Amino acid sequence: MATIHDVAKMAKVSVTTVSRVLNNRGYISETTRNKVFQTMKELNYQPNELARSLLRKQSNVIGLIIPNVAHPFFAELASHVERYAYENGYKIMLCNSHLDPVKEKEYIDMLKRNRVDGIIMGSHTLEVKEYKELHSPIVTIDRQISEEIPFISSDNYEGGRLAAQLLVDKGCRKIAHICGNLELQLLANQRTAAFRDVMAENEIEPIIIQTDMNVFDEQQYEQIMSRLFAEHPEIDGLFATSDIIASFAVKECRKADKHIPEQIKIVGYDDVSAANWITPSLTTIRQPIAEIGRVAVDSIIRQMNNEPLEHRYVLEVELVERLTT
Amino acid sequence: MATIHDVAKMAKVSVTTVSRVLNNRGYISETTRNKVFQTMKELNYQPNELARSLLRKQSNVIGLIIPNVAHPFFAELASHVERYAYENGYKIMLCNSHLDPVKEKEYIDMLKRNRVDGIIMGSHTLEVKEYKELHSPIVTIDRQISEEIPFISSDNYEGGRLAAQLLVDKGCRKIAHICGNLELQLLANQRTAAFRDVMAENEIEPIIIQTDMNVFDEQQYEQIMSRLFAEHPEIDGLFATSDIIASFAVKECRKADKHIPEQIKIVGYDDVSAANWITPSLTTIRQPIAEIGRVAVDSIIRQMNNEPLEHRYVLEVELVERLTT
DNA sequence: TTGTACGCGTTATCAA
DNA sequence: TTGATAACGCGTACAA
Boundaries of each HTH lacI-type domain copy (chains A, B) (predicted)? Predict the structure, then answer.
C-alpha cells in the first residue's frame, strides 16, 4: 500500500507538499497540485488514518456498546447511530456486551486502547464508579449514571402512563405488566412506576412480572407467558415492556384461544419495525429511536469539541394504536 | 492518557523494559516485572493500539459492510460476526451501505484508509472489477465475485427446493414465490431457480413476483402482498425469500380472511428469530447464520496469515416446519 | 537482564 | 511556493 513518501517521490516533490495538497493547507501552485493528485490516483493512494489519528490524537471512531445488535431495538439504534456518525465523518466500532459485566469492562478498555473519541453506552452492568472513572466523552442510553455523564432516554414515565391508561380506558380491569429486571438502575423502570400509579388511581390490583432480561431469552418469554395465563386466566389487559415480549404474548393468546383485542388487549413498547410485522399488528409506545441515535452521536461530538451540551435528554414518546387494543 | 514513557519514568526503567513486560517478550526479572505492572495499574495505562497498529501494520479490525443492521438477517449476522471476531482478538467496524453504490465505495475506501485487516462484504452493488482491485483480504456473503475471492453462502438451491417441494407435498397447486431483484448477481437467486424447477417437475404454473429489495421497504411489501392476493385469489401456497416478507404475507392473509395453513400455506426463508415471534410461527428454511459469521471471520484471518483456505463455502440449510404449513 | 536508537506514516513548525 | 525535520506512541535490533 502506497505511502505519502511514494507519492512524493513519484511526483518529485517533498512529502510536505503532498500533505499540503491532501489537506488543502497553505499555498500550492496549480501545477504541483494537479501533479500530486495525478500520482495519488495512479498509485491509488489512501492516506493512513492510523498515522493521522496518532498524531492528531483523534481517531474519529465512536464505540457503541449495546447488549446485542440482534435485538431489534438495538439493531435499529445501531443503524441510526451509524448513519449519523457517518454523516459527521465518524466510524462505529460495534460491541455486544451480552450484559456480561466482564465483557463490558473489557470492551471499554479495548475502546480506550484504540483511542476512540467517545463511547455510547447502551449496556449498563458496571458500578457507577467505573463509568465515572472513564475520563472519555461518553453518553448513556436509558440510564442516569451521575450528574456529569449525559444521558439520553425517552420519557419512560409518560410511556408507561400512556400504555396503562389506554388499557384502562378501553375497559380492561385485570391488567398485567411484564417488565425487565428492576434491580438494574434503568430509566425504563419508570414505565413500571407509571403503570403502578395508573393502576392505583383506578383501583386496579396490578399484576407485575419481572423478567430476567439478562439475556434476551426467548424461551424465557414463552415460559413466562404460559405461566402468566395459567395463573391468571382472567387477564384482559397486558402491557409488555418491549414489542418482542408483546409478540410472545400475542402468540400465547393464540394458543390459549383468547381473542385479541376482544378478550384481551396488548400494548408493547419501542415500536420497532417488528411491531408491524406481526399479526395482529401491535399497539405500542413509540420511542424515537432515530432521534436517540442522533442525539447520542451529537452529544459525543459536542463533548469532544467542548461545546455546550445538555446533560439530560428526555425525548417524547407517542402512543401508536394498531390492532391489539 | 498515560504513555509508555510515563510508565517507564515512574517505574524508573526504560521504555523497552515496559514494552517487554507488556508483550511478555525476552527476559525480565520478577522484580521489575512486578514494579512495571504496578505502575501500569497506578497510571491506568492503556497501550495505544493506534501506534501499535501503525508499527505492526496490522490493526486487528475487520470491516463489515452490509445493507442495513436494522434488517434481522444482517443484525443476527453482525452479532455473530462480532462475537467470533472478538473471540479472536478482532474488532468490528460497522458499515451500512443501504445498497447505495456510492456509499459502498466510500465505505470500502474508508476501511482501507483505516487499514482494516479485512472486509466482510454482505452488500454487493459494485462492478466485479472494483472488488477485484481491492487487494485486501475480503470475503463475500452470498455472492460469487470471481474465482479468487472467497465467498460464503448457504445452499440456496437446496433451500428453494425444500421450500417448493414442501408446498407441493402438502397439496398446494397454486403456488406463488416472492423473490428479490434477480438482476443483481446474488446466489440467493438460486432459490428462485429451484422453485421453478420443482414447479416444472410437478407441472404447476409458477407465479413469481420480484421485489425491488433495493431498500428493505416494508410499505412495498404490503403493497405487493395485497396486489398478489387481489390478482390471484386462488393461491394456496407461498414461498417468500425472507421471513420478513413472509410475515407480511401472513398479515395480508389475516386481512383477506384466508386461513393459514388450511387455505394457504406459507414458507419463509432465513429462520431469523422473528420467524418465531410472529403468529402463527413461520415454517421457514433455516440458514446457519452463526456458522456463516464464523466462517467469514475465519476466512479473513486465514487470508491475513496466508493460511490455506477454501474459496467456496456452501453451508447446509434446513427445513424448519412450524405452523404456517 | 536492561537500555539506546531507529522507524512505522503523518502533520506541524520553521526555514529557504 | 516549497522542503527538511521533529514528533505522535510503540516495538525491535543491537549494544551494554
Answer: 2-56
Q: Per the domain annotation, does A98 fall within a domain?
A: yes
Distance, Å, A55 CA → C13 C1': 14
Residue with cell 443503524: A79
On the question of pLDDT at B214 being above 60, the answer is no
A185, exposed or middle or buried, with CB in 10 Å at 0-12, 13-18, 19+?
Answer: exposed
Same domain, A210 and A275: yes
Do A179 and A276 share a domain, yes or no? yes
Instruction: Say if residue B210 is in the same domain as residue B307.
Output: no
Q: What is the number of other CB atoms lying within 10 angstroms of the CB of residue A105?
A: 14
**B201 vs A195: CA distance, rounded Å:** 58
Cβ distance A49 to B281 less than 8 Å, yes or no, reads no
Closest approach of chain A CAs to the CA of B90, in angstroms?
10
Mean pLDDT for chain A overall: 95
**Residue A45, nucleotide of least CA–C1' distance:** C9
Beta-bridge partners for B208: B177
Q: Are residues A218 and A232 in the same domain?
A: yes
Assign B195 to helix, strand or coil: helix
Residues A278 and A293 both lie in one domain: no
| Mean pLDDT of all residues in B41-63 | 96
Which H/E stretch holds residue B106? helix B101-113
Find, in chain A, the residue whose alpha carbon is nearest to that of B281.
Answer: A251
Tell me, what DSSP letter sits at residue A275? G
Does A167 lie in the same domain as A90?
A: no
Residues of A in Cβ contact (< 8 Å) with B64: 94
Q: How confident is the model at residue B212 (pLDDT cuts 50, 70, 90)?
A: confident
Look at A86 and B182; give whichever has higher pLDDT. Answer: A86
Q: Mean pLDDT throughout B82-91?
A: 98
Residues A68 and A40 in one domain: no
Note whether A236 and A172 are within 8 A (CB): yes
- DSSP assignment of B271-304 equals --GGGGTSSSPPEEEEP-HHHHHHHHHHHHHHHH
Comparing every residue's Cα with the C1' atom of nucleotide C9, the nearest one is A51
- Report pLDDT digits (tens) over A132-172: 888 899 999 999 999 999 999 999 999 999 999 999 999 99
Domain of B10 in residue numbering reads as 4-47
| The pLDDT of residue A215 is above 70 | no
User: Is the pLDDT assigned to residue B285 strictly greater than 80?
Assistant: yes
Asked if residue B303 is part of any domain, the answer here is yes
Cis peptide upstream of residue B280 (ω within 30 degrees of 0): yes
Alpha carbon distance, N-terminus to C-terminus of chain B: 60
Residue A325 lies in a domain: no
Nearest C-alpha neighbor of A81 from the set A147, A139, A159: A139
Distance CA A77, CA A79 (A): 5
CATH number at residue B187: 3.40.50.2300
Q: What is the DSSP track for B33-65?
A: HHHHHHHHHHHT----HHHHHHHHT---EEEEE
Nearest CA in chain B to A282: B278
CA of B106 to C1' of D5 (A): 34
Is A251 inside a domain boundary? yes
Do A112 and A66 have their domain in common? Answer: yes
CA B325 – CA A116 distance, rounded (Å) = 49
Q: Residue A44: is its pLDDT beyond 90?
A: yes
* Structural domains of chain A, count: 3
